Amino acid sequence: MEAHEEAVPEAPQEAMEVNPEYLKQLKDLDIPEEEAKKALILTGNISAEEAAMFYFESLENHNLYADEDEMYYKMVFVVNMELPMGVGKVAAQVGHAAIGFLYQLLLKDSKSKEMADKWDVFGAKKVVLQGANAAHLMQLQALAISLDLPTYLVQDAGRTQIAAGSHTILGIIGEEENVNKVTGKLKLLN
């Protein structure tokens, strides 16, 4: 499981090799070696103290949102593969869906905001999958809605590659197990 990572300035390339003394100090604190290396890199390899604070804050943030069954959340984007969209167009449409979700969820009730917070804390998992066509996207949307999962269906404005009103991307967000009931058999976009 990934711990929540706060925005930290990118470490310079030469700092990617972790300081062995700092690593030893972190391991002495019972921080797993891989997590210690990650914390050192993400904090710019400044000091063992800085990396330890980052690691323990990440754990604390994770524990604030952990339920007894630890529900993981993810956001899935299903691309309408029938449309002749280039890579840049698909990326832009996925961006529309992600922004639409966040805007929609953050303005709704506290339950929706809590879902967005949990999604973020548990790594903000995003997956892009292949859908057959617009009818397929709408079937998936109906199933997601029946499971009480928030959805966002992007319709293109028609200014570039495809006709106005075309259903390009279906976004679904929610508890991973429920999202998988809707999209678990779809192939990853490649």
Automatic annotation (TrEMBL):
<dbReference type="InterPro" id="IPR015940">
    <property type="entry name" value="UBA"/>
</dbReference>
<dbReference type="Pfam" id="PF01981">
    <property type="entry name" value="PTH2"/>
</dbReference>
<dbReference type="InterPro" id="IPR002833">
    <property type="entry name" value="PTH2"/>
</dbReference>
<keyword id="KW-0378">Hydrolase</keyword>
<dbReference type="InterPro" id="IPR023476">
    <property type="entry name" value="Pep_tRNA_hydro_II_dom_sf"/>
</dbReference>
<protein>
    <recommendedName>
        <fullName>peptidyl-tRNA hydrolase</fullName>
        <ecNumber>3.1.1.29</ecNumber>
    </recommendedName>
</protein>
<feature type="domain" description="UBA">
    <location>
        <begin position="19"/>
        <end position="60"/>
    </location>
</feature>
<dbReference type="Pfam" id="PF22562">
    <property type="entry name" value="UBA_7"/>
</dbReference>
<dbReference type="InterPro" id="IPR009060">
    <property type="entry name" value="UBA-like_sf"/>
</dbReference>
